[in-house]
Amino acid sequence: MSDEAAAAAEKKATIEKFSEVATLAGVKGKIDDDGERFVAGYGFDDGRSQMVYARAIKTPSGSGVCVYSPAAKYKKGMFGGISKNAAVDLLTRNENLYFARYGIRDLDDELLVVASVDLLIDTLDPEELRSAMGSVSAAADTWEEKAGKGDDF
Amino acid sequence: MKTTDMRMLVSARYGGDVELLQLIRKEKTLVEEQKRVEVLRTRSRLRLKMLASAVRVSDGMLPSVGVSMERIKARVDVGKPLEAFVFADSEINAFVSETGSRFLVGLSSGAIQTLTSDELEFVIGHELGHALFGHTEVAAGFLAENGRVSDDHSKLLRSWQRAAEISADRVGLLCCEELDVATTALVKTLAGLSLGGMRLKPSEITAQWESLIEEVMDEGATDLWEHSHPFPPLRIKALESFWRDYKAGSTKNGDVEIRRFLSIMDSSGSAHPGTSSEDSLLGRFLLWGGLFVGTADGPLDPAVRSRLEALTVPGVDFDELIQSGQDLAALSLEKFKAAKSSRRSKLRATELTSLMRQLVAFAALDDNFSDNEKTRLALLAGELGLHPSAVDLLIQQYQQGTQA
Asked: Alpha-carbon torsion B312, B316, B322, B323, what sign?
């Protein structure tokens, strides 16, 4: 098996383990077709909802997952992007956020603000997973609402 | 072996030893590493070391050992000349090694001084068992320790080493022909006692064996896989199971239960089939949880019963339990809770998944999930701290799996 194939197999195994723990946590979701991400919906009491994803990562302490929830998309370009005020606001919120962080993922022609948290897969338990999904979806939803982006995610 | 021939010896080999060795031989990395080690072995100077610093067994020098050696050599044909040495070590120790054209058998001075000639025959027979079954062809200990193979490969190698010890013990037993002799030799090895000519029966070690299994379960111990030898109480228990079947003329050799005994020392979540400790560590949860779920709709389904009977849970007589007339639901739930509270480490997610999936499968054995079964599954899930909807998801997954 090549290194690349071994790494892909390890990622897949990590996501499968995450999916098993999600089942124990009572989270209904599925692994996407290419086997690289776990996807689930998260509903809030006020009727709003968030999509939550998990993708496999390598950490210095072993295999892990990054659990993330998209909050808002911003078009790139001269008249697009994230304003200075919004960026400062995100950083300030990061300082006060528990068990999640805001960050920006650079897509081809867009910037995606996500709330995320990293977890080690070997020690992950159902309670921790549920709590992580709650934290990132709450943080993402808060920014989505604040940024006036409706409830797209 | 006054009565055993070579064919019998070969057929006494533990099935798990053969299966795991086949797995090792299919692993390309391990085969490559073994080739490398083989080169080092040809340069080994073990015989030189033995000739220089140990005593070669001869009729003149150590007549009693020489006689034992000759007697066993006549029964166990390993295809190459044997040379035995006694080396200075107060502990009871022995080894066999292949050096080119011959096998070297090393016996510690502690073994010679502490063991009777019958017990020594068990030990020598054990070492020749390794040679007979080709165990010396794979340098498993060296490969597992040298850091050039993955953790999963190390786990596989260690699992095989323990299985190989079981096979070798059987040859030792067939050489000395008495279970009590083999038991005494192993107990002496364990404690270093001379025991003043006492003969021990395997039953003497039963209580210790049961406490050992309970301790392993309570700890949720997953680091036992690093041991190259099964714990001596486990070896005695395995010899007892083998001897029972062997004496009864059964070719099963006690292999099914020995596989369960050995799995307690395997690693949790191992990548290789037959080398995972999960079910053994979960034995009590599976037994009491299975009984709780299995009796939800009335008497225990025979299929669930046979599955539960196969679990290794010390101190539980299944027949007695079923016929006791006790309230099995209340008893099993109470025992399930007790298993949870006596467990000193948190149940890992992989253990929880395995446990809940098996409990769901027990409930499905009668082809449907009744409301009673679902309620009981949810109760157990709650005891394990799982979310209430986990059971519904597990049932859905089970049904999707069986449909697929």
From this structure: positive
